[in-house]
Design brief:
With 308 residues, the protein is mostly helical. 72% of the residues lie in helices and 0% in strands. It has one domain.
Length: 308
């Protein structure tokens, strides 16, 4: 998948993800502690914009073989989504948030990448017979496809209007960058269905069977380079050394998140930017439970602090 066009898309995606500051953990925390749903609205905009671009381009080029198929059993998907949410909470960010933190120089999150590689090497999902693989689906009905694009456009518009009604400092910029995230992600997923930077660290864990070379590394490097460049330009670059507790937390969080992602299948970024936009029903189930679990964890923590 490595060509100049793809590298440009991944670099642009990294840039816009950093500016939009998309992270499910941060968004759910904001929704509970600050009672503002801006972060959740932004995720909705990213999802629906990616759907419009991915489905629209697929329809235009006549290539529907890039959309996601079905995942694991509903019980497995549901349980794994809850576990992935707990791992994200432990980590302090989801897969997208991890990119944002690393782009701003927080070295603790390097250990999340190590945890992802360790999860790939451990093969827990495979050993327990719970592993699922990303699949592609046959061409959908054109009427269904058209209705999906229209629905996504209406939901995106409603989310943009909701942010406008309660606009805070920087929300307009984040909204604009989130629209770009959807644009870049939709185009990228047409080129490389289901791709994520996690692919590189899965390969590291499976280095005996998966080629770990420049063709695999280059897109992920462009993604992280875009995030770093964005942070430098925005003045949010603030490098900090890892701490013992922070490193251990991120190592464990990355391991738990990726182990669960093997069962769904798909990490939270893939669910948000490819599986659901590509009309994968299991993605909606998984991501809904993922976000709901995070909301419950933050609500429980808020209630415990109030009682204390």
């Amino acid at each position: 998948m490595t060509d100049v066009f793809t590298l440009g898309i991944t670099a642009g995606l990294g840039w816009s993800l950093s500016r939009a500051n998309l992270c499910s953990v941060a968004a759910t925390q904001e929704a509970i502690t600050a009672e503002r749903a801006t972060g959740l609205y932004l995720q909705t905009i990213a999802l629906t914009t990616a759907a419009i671009v991915l489905l629209g381009l697929s329809w235009w080029v006549g290539d529907f073989g890039r959309l996601t198929g079905e995942g694991g059993t509903r019980v497995t998907v549901a349980a794994a989504a809850i576990v992935m949410a707990l791992g994200a909470w432990l980590n302090g960010s989801c897969f997208l948030g991890n990119l944002v933190h690393l782009g701003r120089g927080n070295a603790n999150y390097l250990f999340t990448l190590a945890g992802i590689a360790l999860a790939a090497h451990a093969h827990l999902a495979e050993r327990w017979g719970l592993a699922s693989t990303l699949a592609l689906q046959p061409p959908p009905n054109h009427r269904v496809l058209g209705m999906a694009i229209l629905t996504a456009a209406l939901i995106a518009l409603a989310a943009v209007r909701a942010i406008g009604r309660d606009e805070g400092p920087g929300d307009a910029t984040r909204c604009g960058e989130t629209l770009k995230v959807g644009l870049f992600a939709g185009a990228l997923m047409l080129q490389a269905p289901g791709w994520s930077y996690v692919t590189v660290f899965n390969a590291a864990g499976h280095s005996s069977t998966v080629p770990f070379d420049a063709l695999l590394i280059a897109p992920a490097a462009a993604l992280f380079a875009g995030a770093v460049a964005s942070a430098l330009m925005a003045g949010t670059w603030a490098p900090c050394a890892p701490t013992v507790l922070g490193a251990l937390r991120c190592l464990a969080g990355g391991f738990v998140m990726q182990s669960a992602a093997h069962c769904i299948p798909g990490s939270s970024d893939v669910l948000l930017l490819w599986v659901i936009p590509g009309l994968g029903g299991y993605g909606l189930l998984a991501y809904s439970l993922f976000v709901s679990t995070l909301l419950l964890v933050w609500q429980f923590k808020k209630s415990a602090l109030t009682v204390g």
